C-alpha cells in the first residue's frame, strides 16, 4: 500500500447547482476507490440546503455527506464548506444578477483563503485542484499553490467544444451581434455542422451578459488546465473529443455515475426534500407511466404549465409530475395549475415538489420522460431505457436535445420553441408512449444503452480513459514535486 504521504490528494469543487454536484460526488467516489484522498468542497448555502432537505441531517450543526462512503468502504473523503460571499438568507434566485457578479468577482477570494489553510494544515499534502469548468479562478489558485489543475466538464463534449471555440463564432459573425448570421456553422473543429437553433442558449445571446462573461472567462481559464475530464462517452461523441484532444489532454469518462459500479452508496445531494413515489407506482402496468420533470434550475411560464397540464389530461396517460415550488419564478400566484386539476387526475397522476429521479425512472412502470434535457437526465434515461420527450429550456439543454433527437434518435421534440398547445402536448405524449414511434425509440435507446454498458465495462473506453487520466495525473504530480 502507498505511504499516506504519497497518496494524491485532490480538492474537488462543483458549481453550486444540483446538476453539477451529483457528477462531482460520483467522481469523488471513483477517485477515492483508486487511492486518492479527496477534500470535497460545497458552498455554505448548498450545504445548508442539503442539510435541510435530508431528514437524518435535521438539527445537525455540521452534517458530513460522505460519512457512509468512509464507514462502509473506507474511502478517504473529507468534507468542507466555503462561503460564496453572500449570507444564507440572501435569495440567490431572485437576485440572480447580483449573485452571478459575486461568483465572477468575489468568490475566488473565499476559495483562495480556504485552499491556503488546507495547503498549510492538511496531510497528505494537497496535490490537485479539480474544479468545475464554469469557474473562472482555478488556474490562478492552482498556480499559487503549485497544484495540478484539472477541469471537470459535467456536460457533453459537443457543448464544451462550442464554448471552447466561442471566439470563432464571434469572428464569423455568428455570435455576440444584434444581427447574428443565421446560416449553418461549419468551422468548429470536430463539429461537422450545427444550426443556430441548436447552440447553447448563452451562445445565442445578442448582447453580453454577466453569465456570458463568466463563460468566456471560464473558457480562457480552462485553456490553462493540465487535464480536462468530461462526463461523456467516447463512442457517442468521437469527433469533438478527438478534435479537443489535439488542443489539450481531454478524457471522456462517462457516465460517471456508472463507472466502477459504486451506485449503491447513499450520499445526500438533493437540495429539496424528496417524495417517495414507489407505492404510487407499484400497481401501474409496465411502461405505462410518464415521468415529467424540468430539472432543478429551469423556469417555465404559468401559461406553459397550464397547457402542459391540460395536455396531460387529454393524453389519458398516467404520470408523475415534479413541480418545484419555484418553477414559475415570475408569477406571484402560488396556484399555477388549472382550477380543479388535482381533483381531475385522481389516481391517474401524482404531483410532487421533488423526488429521487433515478428511483422513478428505474421503475419498470415508467415508459417515458418529458424532460428539460439536462445532461444527467439524458444519461439516466438512456441507462434505464426510457425514451424522452424533449423540452429544452436554456443553457446546454438545447444542444443536448440535438444529440437525443437528431443524432441518437432516442427522443422526440416537444414543441420546437413554438407556443405550447394542449392538443399538441397530448399528441406528442401518446407518440412517445405507444405505437410505432414508441417502438422505434425503445429499439434505438437499447442500442445506445449498449454503448454505455460497453464504455463502463472493465475493458471499455471510459474505464480505460479514467485509468489513463489517473496515471497521467500521478506522473504530473511527481514531475511537479521535483
From TrEMBL:
Record-listed E.C. numbers: 2.4.1.-
SUPFAM superfamilies given in the database record: UDP-Glycosyltransferase/glycogen phosphorylase
Pathway the protein takes part in: Pigment biosynthesis; anthocyanin biosynthesis
GO terms for MF: anthocyanidin 3-O-glucosyltransferase activity; quercetin 3-O-glucosyltransferase activity; quercetin 7-O-glucosyltransferase activity
Reactions that this protein is recorded to catalyse: an anthocyanidin + UDP-alpha-D-glucose + H(+) = an anthocyanidin 3-O-beta-D-glucoside + UDP
Superkingdom, natural source: Eukaryota
Keywords from the UniProt entry: Glycosyltransferase, Transferase
GO biological process, one term: anthocyanin-containing compound biosynthetic process
Entries under Gene3D superfamilies matching the protein: Glycogen Phosphorylase B
Keyword flag Glycosyltransferase: yes
Tagged with keyword Glycosyltransferase: yes
Family recorded in the similarity comment: Belongs to the UDP-glycosyltransferase family.
UniProt-recorded name of the protein: Glycosyltransferase
Organism annotation: Jatropha curcas (Barbados nut)
Amino acid at each position: 500500500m502507498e505511504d499516506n504521504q504519497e497518496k494524491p490528494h485532490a480538492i474537488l469543487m462543483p458549481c453550486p447547482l444540483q446538476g453539477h454536484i451529483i457528477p462531482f460526488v460520483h467522481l469523488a467516489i471513483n477517485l477515492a476507490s483508486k487511492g486518492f484522498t479527496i477534500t470535497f468542497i460545497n458552498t455554505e448555502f448548498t450545504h445548508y440546503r442539503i442539510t435541510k432537505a435530508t431528514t437524518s441531517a435535521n438539527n445537525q450543526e455540521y452534517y458530513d455527506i460522505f460519512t457512509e462512503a468512509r464507514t462502509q468502504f473506507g474511502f478517504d473523503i473529507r468534507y468542507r464548506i466555503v462561503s460564496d460571499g453572500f449570507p444564507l438568507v440572501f435569495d440567490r434566485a431572485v437576485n440572480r444578477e447580483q449573485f452571478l457578479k459575486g461568483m465572477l468577482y468575489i468568490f475566488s477570494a473565499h476559495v483562495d483563503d480556504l485552499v491556503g489553510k488546507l495547503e498549510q494544515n492538511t496531510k497528505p499534502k494537497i496535490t490537485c485542484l479539480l474544479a468545475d469548468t464554469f469557474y473562472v479562478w482555478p488556474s490562478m489558485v492552482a498556480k499559487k499553490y503549485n497544484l495540478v489543475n484539472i477541469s471537470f466538464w459535467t456536460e457533453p463534449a459537443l457543448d464544451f467544444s462550442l464554448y471552447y471555440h466561442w471566439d470563432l463564432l464571434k469572428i464569423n459573425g455568428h455570435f455576440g451581434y444584434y444581427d447574428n448570421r443565421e446560416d449553418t456553422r461549419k468551422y468548429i473543429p470536430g463539429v461537422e455542422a450545427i444550426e443556430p437553433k441548436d447552440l447553447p442558449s448563452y451562445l445565442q445571446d445578442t448582447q453580453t451578459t454577466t453569465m456570458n462573461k463568466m463563460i468566456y472567462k471560464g473558457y480562457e481559464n480552462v485553456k490553462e488546465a493540465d487535464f480536462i475530464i468530461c462526463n461523456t462517452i467516447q463512442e457517442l461523441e468521437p469527433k469533438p473529443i478527438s478534435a479537443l484532444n489535439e488542443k489539450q489532454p481531454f478524457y471522456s469518462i462517462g457516465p460517471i455515475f456508472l463507472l466502477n459500479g459504486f451506485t449503491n452508496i447513499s450520499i445526500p445531494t438533493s437540495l429539496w426534500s424528496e417524495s417517495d413515489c414507489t407505492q404510487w407506482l407499484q400497481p401501474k402496468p409496465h411502461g405505462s407511466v410518464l415521468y415529467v420533470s424540468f430539472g432543478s434550475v429551469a423556469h417555465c411560464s404559468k401559461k406553459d404549465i397550464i397547457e402542459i397540464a391540460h395536455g396531460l389530461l387529454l393524453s389519458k396517460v398516467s404520470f408523475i409530475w415534479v413541480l418545484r415550488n419555484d418553477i414559475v419564478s415570475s408569477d406571484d400566484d402560488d396556484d399555477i395549475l388549472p382550477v380543479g386539476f388535482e381533483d381531475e387526475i385522481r389516481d391517474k397522476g401524482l404531483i410532487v415538489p421533488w423526488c429521487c429521479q433515478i428511483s422513478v425512472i428505474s421503475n419498470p412502470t415508467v415508459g417515458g420522460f418529458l424532460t428539460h434535457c439536462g445532461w444527467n437526465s439524458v444519461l439516466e434515461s438512456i441507462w434505464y431505457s426510457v425514451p424522452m420527450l424533449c423540452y429544452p429550456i436554456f443553457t446546454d439543454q438545447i444542444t443536448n436535445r440535438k444529440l437525443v433527437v437528431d443524432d441518437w434518435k432516442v427522443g422526440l421534440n416537444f414543441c420546437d420553441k413554438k407556443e405550447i398547445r394542449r392538443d399538441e402536448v397530448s399528441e406528442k405524449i401518446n407518440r412517445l408512449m405507444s405505437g410505432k414511434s414508441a417502438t422505434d425509440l425503445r429499439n434505438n435507446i437499447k442500442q445506445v444503452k449498449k454503448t454505455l454498458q460497453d464504455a463502463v465495462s472493465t475493458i471499455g473506453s471510459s474505464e480505460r480513459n479514467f485509468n489513463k487520466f489517473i496515471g497521467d495525473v500521478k506522473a504530473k504530480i511527481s514531475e511537479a514535486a521535483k
